[in-house]
Amino acid sequence: MKNSAFRSVLAVCAVLASFAVVGAEAPDEVPFKEGDGPPSANPGEMWCLVVRPATYKTVTEQVLIQPATFFMEMVPAKFETKEETIQVAPETKRACVVPAKFKCEKFQQIVREECVSYEIIPAEYNTVEEQVVVRAAGETLSVSPATYKTVSEQILVAPARRYWKKVSSGKVDKRDENGDCYCMCEVPAKYVTVCRQVLDKEGTQTKVPITAQTKCVKVRKMVKAPEVKKVTVPAEYVTMEREIIDVPASVTYETVPAKFETIQKEVQVAPETTRKVEIPAKYETTSHSVLDMPAKMVWKKGKCKCDTNAIVSKYKEIPGTDIESLMKLK
To answer: For site-directed labelling of 105, which of 52, 112, 191, 277 has its Cα 20 to 30 A away?
Structure first.
């Protein structure tokens, strides 16, 4: 705050100095240092803190606007027109046909081949009467059946047997006591009467002769057997005319020469290549201002036109430099 008040005072002094410095020589200058007050001054002198503006100078320089580069350029192939004789048709052989010569001749043409046929001669028959056996002579058997008679016969069904049978007790002797008594019993055999047929007289067989029986019938008998006769049929021919080759056809060959033509064609004498094309860098001359000397604050020495002592003695201080006024300026 003190520096601000001091600067305000200096500003007031500068205003007064602007009226006081009239026709004076160039005042002395002292560089300004931050935190230092103005240099010592004699009565009637003043130091003004002024800003010395920066000075500039015009500088001309080359500015790169396009760097150096290159590109590959295609160099086309080189061709030349030359004449050349080429074969358009090769040498060939042309066939010439010599037709055959014919003549007429007669020949026998078979229309039916020789063949063999067979003729059948049927058999010859006669009808005669013959005795035919209807039933042949033989013999038959005459059978007399057997005779039977009925007889009776006793057949044992159950054989005789013995067994003990318990009977009521009794005293055999007076001196014996009573006890168990058993009696031996006998069961007679059992028979059954059965009637059955038995052979009384066996049967007999007698052979009886049978006379043959004949019958008169008419019979057809073959007198002559059938025959097969082989007959040869001769071939049949017809006289015809036909053309035959007298001189056969032939082929002769004729040589056809090759054909040539003269043409013009482009022949490559230099192949297609590439070459490197350098593009130089581009510069532009520009002028611009550059800082020659930066702005700076200096103390400028001057003389006061007014009597500061008189002002102070009159007003006790320079008006506007009291603390309240300086605070208001701040």
So the answer is: 112
